[in-house]
Amino acid sequence: MSAEGLAGLFRARSVALVGATERSIWSTAAFANFARLGFTGRVHPVSRKGGTVHGLPAATSCAAIGEPVDAALLMVPEQSIAEAFADLNAAGIRHAVVLTSGFAEVGAEGAARQEALLAAARAQGVTLLGPNCLGFINYADRVPIWTTQPPMPILQGGSIGVVSQSGATAGFIAGFAHRQGIGLSYQVSTGNEADVNVARVVDFLVEDPATRVIGLFLETVHDAPLLAAAARRALAADKPIVAIKIGASETAARAAEAHTGSLVGDDRVFDAVCRQLGIIRVSCIEDLVFTAALLSRTGHVRDRRLGLVSISGGICEMAADHAELAGVAVPRLAEPTRAALREILPAFGTPNNPLDVTGGAMLDASLFARSLPAFGADPSLGLLACFMDLPDTPEEIASYRGEIVRQIGAGFRAAGKPSVMLSVMARPVLEPGRALLAETGITYLGSGVLHGLGAIGRAFAWAERQERGLPAAPPAPAPVGERPASEHATLAYLGQRGVPVVPLTLARMAAEAVRAAAALGGPAVLKIASPDIAHKSDIGGVLLNLEGEAAVAEGFARIMASVRAAKPEARIEGILVGPMRRDSGIELFVGVLRDPLWGPAIAVGLGGIWVEALRDTAIRLLPVTPGEVLEMLSELRGAKLLDGYRGTPGIDRQAAAEAVARIGDAALALGPDLVSLEVNPLRATMAGAEALDALAIWNEEG
If you ran DSSP here, which 8-state letter would residue 534 be given? Predict the structure, then answer.
């Protein structure tokens, strides 16, 4: 789907309403929206009965309209869709929005109907939005093909493009934004995504000049490669993407599958995609709207050190706590700044960051206008955030409350730094308040302390991520024809691919094990070698720290007896003999998995027994560079251990990162039949890294 194809849909200048009737709330709302938005193109009701519908002559078919039509809204029953598409083809209409439900969301039969619908659209060259969707509103160009009433009055000049697979959720997002005085550029419901999906709309919005920020509500991802490519382009273009993605819980995943007929994928992998591609992930509509609004209004903040101001010492303390939780630096003021503020504040005021201007501002609102420039002049501050509720009524605006806001606006202008006013508690922004904001030029969020500082923290983190940029993707490794199944074969393969691995000898008899152990010159480890046994320790298949011929020979016999008793059907290749590593090291887990939506991904975490106990892992899509692996290691909750902790030595992070990147490349080279590849542990020390154990699992149908 080209951007031109979507432009023809989203900027349509003539629209046919197929199935138009005054008895339908969908048809009535869709027709009324053209007047509500100020659409200046042509609207053509289409009804089999003809006559007059919505006050206009109704054509009996699209072909009977008698003039070119850019797009059609189909509001006919599911059994009439095929006939409606044939009519579109006869009329030469190449863009369609399908409200009708009864497709993939209802099961296998519906999915077959959806495939037939898509086949018809492709055969006729039709760009199809839906089915089972409410449509879209292009606020920037005043083009609504939307089947419910949008929030009124329409707020023009919005720069947030909202894309949602759920039409109702798109409406909720738009409604909440409207109550906050936040306008949108686009509002798109993609429904079942038979043709046009979220990724394609994002790809379009990255180039849309009216859209500064993109907001997403996702249940699944139907074109992960395109969404990833669009996210990369958005990051490079300094255009943030803020996303809600459901499916973190099993219950939500089941609900999403029932809603759209699609799987949601592994939530941990999507979280990793967001980190990797600079997508801001949030968990609720409030955070999506406030974060997107802040970014759309302040843009990319280069100096991410925060100055906090309030009329209340308690709010100052609360804000400081939430700023720390949001990962935002609140620096101490320089002494010249403190001295300047002492000259301005009442005698009982204390010049700090956060700055309490004191209740003296209730009597003298100019305290804000005089203190904010002095506060903002501090060289350690990059963004000012002042907490004050916006008045709601003309009477409040005419009182001291309106004067305080005007004085804050004057202080912001004089300070000359990016600034935002935040409400103390979440509250709507009413028309009188919007007029006062327009008068003062204040950027305001009615977010309350929690959501407001969360939005600032996310905006700062995104700006830092954007400035780092995305590393050039390393070339995909050439495929190999190998299919290692056992630990020994997998470690040997990894060694061939440049991964440091522990030296192992395969012994088929006790005498061979004794000779191999003696050659090590120190204690040995014995491990069963079998392609049928994944968890060797559970069945007595591993013995550690064996010294001397007798211990090794006896250990060989013990392992064989234990394994044959526990797994009599297992194929046994022999026993692996390797060195017992005594010096201090940290065990890491490295695992490659194949996500059904995103493809191969790699996970890194603390290994050994800790991987299941702590579940402390970082994930990225493959391939990865050593630099990306270093970022992954820094994200671990146990990252402090890697640098040494309470007398224990740290590790060579660079060596570990290079080993992990090579493991990822090695897994990619094995091809799509590889289900997973685990190295547990990858032993890391100050001297380097070494794979001690490895397991490859294959798709047996491949």
Answer: S
